User: Which sequence fits this backbone?
């Protein structure tokens, strides 16, 4: 049993890493599409709509049971679609449109620290001092990356959009963890994308994108491709696949550990932006990025044991937990 659990955890870790590498590739690709003339909101709307149109019919035909939800699940679905899908993508692309991809990725990856704060304040789990040290280190790193003393050099609206994306990303982890333990990942992803598509259609209807713009070239490094192909790649490789992989991983991984693995995303995105877009962080910003990532990792690694212990204690004092605590695996104690 222990071997099987370790194997399952290793597979989930691999899926989570794959998910964040795919998510990271969306930054440079979206930047190229926006450089061709597509507004950030339009890119987000078309990306999510295409992803929903591709996945929902497949799930409906092949896994119809996955789309069976109860009325009590409505708020979970709305929250996941609004925050975890539409919110993350829209604010991230708004940030990418105004600041370098590497900066946007670092900002959105404040999410692990936000998850830790949620655990402490809302779930009332006491966290060790190293957690707060990590949060402080992350905030200092954020200041170095954002170069707050040189506001004219780094767009403040772009920084604000990146921080909003971080809040939505934290919601993605918490809502995804809650939903993945109860629902099929295909059904939850399809429903979340459909809801996100409706929300984004109200902000920027995808059908208003000029048809001639779809055939304009999107330049990514030495590669040139029509915008429609770049958008299709964004929908499949950078949306459907990573959301499916990420939700499946959250069935085995608590949100705390999954958010740590997400820290590979800004590193991959920064490398891709440097190779394909010629964007590079300065030395001060690189130092800040390292400090932010180190602080966010410290938050999670130091708080993981306290996080689980607090949830286990909470469950053991509840009537339902008294019946099930002996048979439910520890990995589900956060859900």
Assistant:
């Amino acid at each position: 049993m222990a071997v099987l659990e370790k194997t399952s955890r290793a597979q989930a870790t691999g899926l989570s890493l794959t998910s964040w590498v795919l998510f990271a590739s969306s930054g440079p690709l979206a930047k190229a599409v926006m450089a061709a003339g597509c507004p950030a909101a339009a890119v987000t709307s078309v990306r999510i709509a295409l992803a929903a149109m591709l996945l929902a019919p497949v799930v409906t035909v092949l896994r119809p049971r996955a789309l069976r939800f109860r009325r009590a699940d409505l708020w979970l679905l709305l929250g996941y679609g609004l925050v975890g899908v539409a919110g993350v993508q829209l604010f991230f692309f708004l940030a990418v449109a105004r600041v370098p991809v590497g900066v946007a990725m670092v900002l959105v990856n404040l999410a692990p620290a936000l998850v830790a704060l949620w655990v402490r304040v809302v779930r009332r789990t006491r966290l060790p001092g190293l957690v707060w040290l990590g949060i402080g280190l992350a905030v200092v790193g954020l200041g170095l990356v954002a170069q707050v003393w040189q506001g004219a050099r780094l767009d403040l609206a772009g920084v604000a959009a990146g921080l909003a994306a971080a809040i939505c990303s934290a919601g993605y982890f918490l809502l995804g963890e809650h939903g993945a333990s109860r629902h099929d990942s295909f059904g939850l992803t399809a429903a979340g994308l459909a809801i996100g598509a409706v929300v984004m259609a109200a902000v920027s209807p995808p059908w208003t994108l000029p048809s001639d713009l779809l055939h304009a070239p999107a330049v990514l490094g030495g590669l040139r491709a029509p915008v429609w192909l770049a958008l299709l790649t964004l929908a499949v490789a950078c949306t459907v696949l990573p959301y499916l992989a990420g939700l499946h991983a959250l069935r085995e991984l608590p949100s705390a550990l999954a958010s740590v693995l997400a820290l590979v995303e800004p590193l991959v995105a920064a490398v891709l932006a440097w190779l394909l877009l010629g964007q590079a962080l300065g030395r001060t910003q690189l130092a800040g990025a390292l400090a932010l990532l180190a602080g966010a990792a410290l938050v999670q690694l130091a708080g993981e044991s306290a996080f689980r212990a607090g949830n286990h204690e909470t469950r053991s004092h509840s009537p339902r937990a008294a019946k099930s605590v002996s048979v439910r695996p520890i990995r589900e104690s956060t859900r």
